[in-house]
Amino acid sequence: MLKEFRDFIARGNVLDLAVAVIIGAAFGKIITALTDDIIMPVIGKIFGGLDFSSHFLILGDVPEKLQGSTDYAALKAAGVPLLGWGSFVTAAINFIIVAFIIFLIVRSVNKMTAKPAEAAPEPAAEPADVVLLREIRDALVKRD
Length: 144
Fold this sequence. Notes:
The chain is mainly alpha-helical and 144 residues long. The chain has five helices and two strands, in the order ααβαβαα. The longest helix has 35 residues, at 12-46.
């Protein structure tokens, strides 16, 4: 069983997948920084200072010491049930950016890779009546 596991891990596609996961995690951090530090502040500025990350709905009772608080992290730490729709909007924008960049990468790679030469299509079979007429002609030529 250990040998099978070693053979499984040594396969190229498993190693490729491991590398892809590691690079993807690092790429995700870059996209999160891009979204949180560049894109969302611009969107917030366009919409009049709106900061999506701090938008939420309170779904339960708030402790006395946090009454009137708008600190999402503090309310969440206190166990207050919250619907953090602003965090969801930020995550959705992250996803769209990552999906678009992956689309661009795959599209570029597909354009760069050489396409295999297509085999010439086989000529279409002649109709049966043409074949029959050709055989008759050949037979008549042989008689003469």
